[in-house]
Write a structure and sequence with these properties.
Layout lengths: L14 H37 L10 H16 L4 H29 L5 H10 L4 H12 L11 H19 L5 H4 L15 H7 L2 H21 L2 H23 L6 H25 L5 H31 L4 H30 L6 H14 L3 H16 L3 E6 L5 E6 L6 E7 L2 E9 L8 H67 L1 H29 L2 H16 L5 E5 L16 H22 L3 E9 L2 E8 L12 H12 L3 E6 L5 E8 L5
Parallel strand pairs: 5-6
Antiparallel strand pairs: 1-2, 1-4, 3-4, 6-7, 7-9, 8-9
Helix pairs in contact: 1-2, 1-3, 2-3, 2-11, 3-4, 3-5, 4-6, 5-6, 5-9, 6-9, 9-10, 10-11, 12-13, 14-15, 14-16, 15-16, 16-17, 16-20, 18-19, 19-20
Length: 678
């Protein structure tokens, strides 16, 4: 989720009061410009109608209508995000271009004068600012305002060069009639350019389409590398851009009115797709605002229409009773308002996937979690359901650990309340709520789901980190073995081979010197054998092959320190040899885990005795190391040894738990499957 970036930053050089005033001024300018854009589009449509077709494709322009409103709406909620500003600026500039283009044609036919060339001049090149922005730059920066990576910088620079270079070339064109459609002079034209701007204009389509395609491709790369939450945000916008680009390429060069109208309509689908992402996946955390706006906006329109209709009907049926008719209409409208609002609220809640009854909301939360593909995505969806059910301004869940994780939907601010999340009696996270209405919080129903999800997120994160460490350790071990074999064993064997060849050559002419060479060969082979034994010891302790798992642990337990007893409970039928035939990986992992546990006991536990139990059960081997020492500290920190034991168990699909022992002390319990994980 995006950070809460429209809260007041707190006291500073300007102070929070001046910050709020400045923000309100910015919003006033933004909404005023959006309103002016609507007026410009309507005016352009009227002028186009009077011209009878000259500006019909730029008249009632969805881009000028949709982009400013959608951008202003998002800016009012997230003023620090770049994409809404780009969308708003695109619509404002495009509506200005549409008005100037239509006004140029209208003035040429109805009011020519000295101002006409100056009105026409921006209409020559102004379109080159918004078009590359929403076709090439916005896909590169969606949704967080940053490029997917540095390698996309040339694409961004290409769009900027196209915007600046081509608009400058058109602005200096000596004869802009090819762009305007009417013979109007250019007060800033450069005669030396001749027809160069016109030729460049005829070939501007391919590079613009190429840059647009690269922008859409960047969305695909961002989608592939993104988290599930960001993927859901990108999907709507990506599909809208793909449809627009495919149609744009298919209709390139076709100036038919209908083709251009469809192209403009598809371009207007881009802000619709962004709003759809907001509606469906809380792209900028404003679903609750949209819910209320849709409900009460529809009610206002419906109530106004109903009231007007009843007034008209009453006046028609009871002429002369205007005041009484108005009163009756108001009473009927008021009586119908509440049930209509309830029905409308339920319909909108279904649209937004909202449930306000605590138990139905809990059921919705459970179904939402089941549909999610991973614990992190499930938790993100769950807090969205909780937020709308609580009618809260913001809801977040913090999952402690290394690294700490945070999931937020909406705006928390500085005065949010915290609720501890516990799973099986253990704290697994903290729920933060801001702006919830009193009496509307089914936390006792939903907290269990959130606690389970927080625990699952922590486990999945730890498991992923553990797998990464295991993979890195395995790769490092392979590199070490490769270096040892290449730098140690390889040269030694080469030297032995060359020495034997030399001995064979000397055998006939100088037999006495051969003995010296053979002694050298023996010394080198002895050193090589020691090196190989060290390598083998690092992979699998030889003592396991000599004494077996139980015998190896008994031998290790004879070192100074607490008394170590190793037991192997017999099978139910009294037979022995339960540890025969263990997979090599399981046997090595069990030995290393028990070895590390015994080492920790000797170093830290101050124990007098240790009991090691090796129990083979159906499909698994249980290894238990229990001591009678001082036990674990209140807040144990996972050191290298504890982490190593867990990772050795996880590497073969098992688990390793460290906890207090009944009666005092500490117990390490590892469960290792006898069959490798799928």
């Amino acid at each position: 989720m995006t950070p809460d970036d429209h809260d007041d930053p707190g006291p500073g050089a300007d102070g929070p009061g001046r910050t709020r005033v400045r923000r309100r001024l910015v919003l006033a300018v933004v909404w005023t410009a959006a309103g002016a854009s609507l007026a410009a589009v309507v005016t352009a449509a009227v002028l186009a109608a009077q011209l009878g077709g000259l500006a019909e494709t730029q008249g009632l322009d969805p881009i000028g209508l949709m982009f400013p409103l959608a951008g202003a709406f998002l800016i009012s909620r997230r003023p620090r995000l770049l994409v809404p500003w780009l969308m708003w600026a695109t619509g404002v500039v495009w509506s200005a271009y549409s008005l100037l283009f239509a006004l140029t044609g209208w003035m040429y036919f109805h009011a020519p004068g000295p101002l006409l060339p100056y009105v026409a001049w921006p209409a020559i090149w102004l379109w080159l600012l918004p078009v590359p922005t929403f076709t090439g730059i916005m896909p590169l920066l969606f949704p967080d305002g940053r490029l997917p990576s540095r390698r996309w910088r040339p694409v961004l620079y290409g769009n900027l060069v196209l915007m600046a270079g081509h608009s400058l070339l058109l602005g200096l064109s000596p004869d802009p009639s090819f762009e305007l459609g009417v013979p109007v002079g250019n007060p800033f034209g450069v005669a030396a350019l001749g027809r160069v701007p016109e030729v460049v204009e005829s070939w501007i389509g391919p590079p613009m389409i190429l840059l647009c395609l690269l922008g859409v491709v960047s969305l695909g790369f961002r989608y592939r590398a993104a988290t599930p939450e960001v993927r859901r945000q990108i999907t709507w916008y990506f599909h809208a851009m793909v449809i627009f680009v495919v149609y744009w390429i298919a209709s390139a060069g076709n100036q038919d009115t209908f083709i251009i109208a469809v192209r403009v309509f598809l371009a207007a689908g881009i802000p619709i797709a962004i709003i759809a992402a907001v509606l469906r996946h809380q792209l900028y955390g404003i679903r609750l605002i949209l819910n209320r706006t849709l409900v009460y906006g529809t009610l206002a329109v419906g109530a106004g229409l109903t009231y007007s209709a009843l007034i008209w009907a009453s006046n028609s049926l009871a002429d002369g009773y205007g005041a009484a008719a108005g009163l009756a209409s108001a009473m009927v409208t008021g009586a119908a308002f509440h049930p209509v609002r309830l029905r409308l609220q339920r319909s909108v809640d279904r649209l937004f996937n909202v449930e306000r009854d605590p138990y139905r909301a809990a059921d919705l939360l459970s179904r939402t979690v089941q549909r999610a593909g991973d614990p992190a995505g499930a938790l993100a969806e769950a807090i969205s359901v909780v937020r709308t059910s609580l009618v809260a301004r913001g809801v977040g869940v913090e999952v402690p650990g290394e690294p700490a994780l945070s999931f937020v939907d909406g705006e928390l601010g500085a005065r949010s309340r915290s609720v501890e999340l516990t799973w099986h009696g253990e704290p697994v996270g903290r729920l933060r709520i801001a702006g919830a209405r009193p009496g509307r919080e089914p936390l006792d129903v939903m907290a269990k789901h959130l606690a389970e999800l927080a625990h699952a997120v922590r486990l999945s994160t730890d498991l992923r980190d553990s797998h990464e460490r295991i993979s890195a350790t395995r790769d490092e071990e392979r590199r070490r073995l490769g270096r040892e074999l290449h730098d140690g064993l390889g040269p030694t064997l080469t030297s032995v081979t060359m020495t034997l060849d030399e001995a064979r050559r000397r055998l006939e002419r100088d037999p006495e010197s051969v003995e010296e060479l053979l002694v050298r060969v023996r010394e080198e082979m002895t050193g090589t054998l020691m090196s190989v034994r060290e390598l083998v010891d690092g992979l699998r302790p030889p003592v396991l092959d000599e004494l077996g798992l139980a015998g190896a642990l008994r031998a290790f337990g004879q070192a100074p320190g607490p008394r170590v007893e190793v037991t192997v409970p017999p099978a139910a039928d009294g037979s022995e040899g339960l540890l025969d035939g263990l997979p090599a990986a399981v046997e090595t992992a069990a030995y290393r885990i028990a070895q590390e546990a015994l080492t920790n006991v000797r170093r830290h536990a101050q124990a007098t005795s240790v009991l090691v139990t090796l129990r083979r059960e159906a499909g698994e081997l249980r290894v238990s190391v229990a001591d009678d020492g001082t036990g674990l500290p209140d807040e144990p920190s996972p050191g290298v040894g504890l982490t190593s034991m867990r990772e050795r168990a996880a590497e073969i699909g098992g688990t390793c738990a460290i906890g207090p022992r009944a009666g005092g002390g500490t117990e390490v319990t590892a469960v290792l499957p006898l069959t490798p994980p799928a």
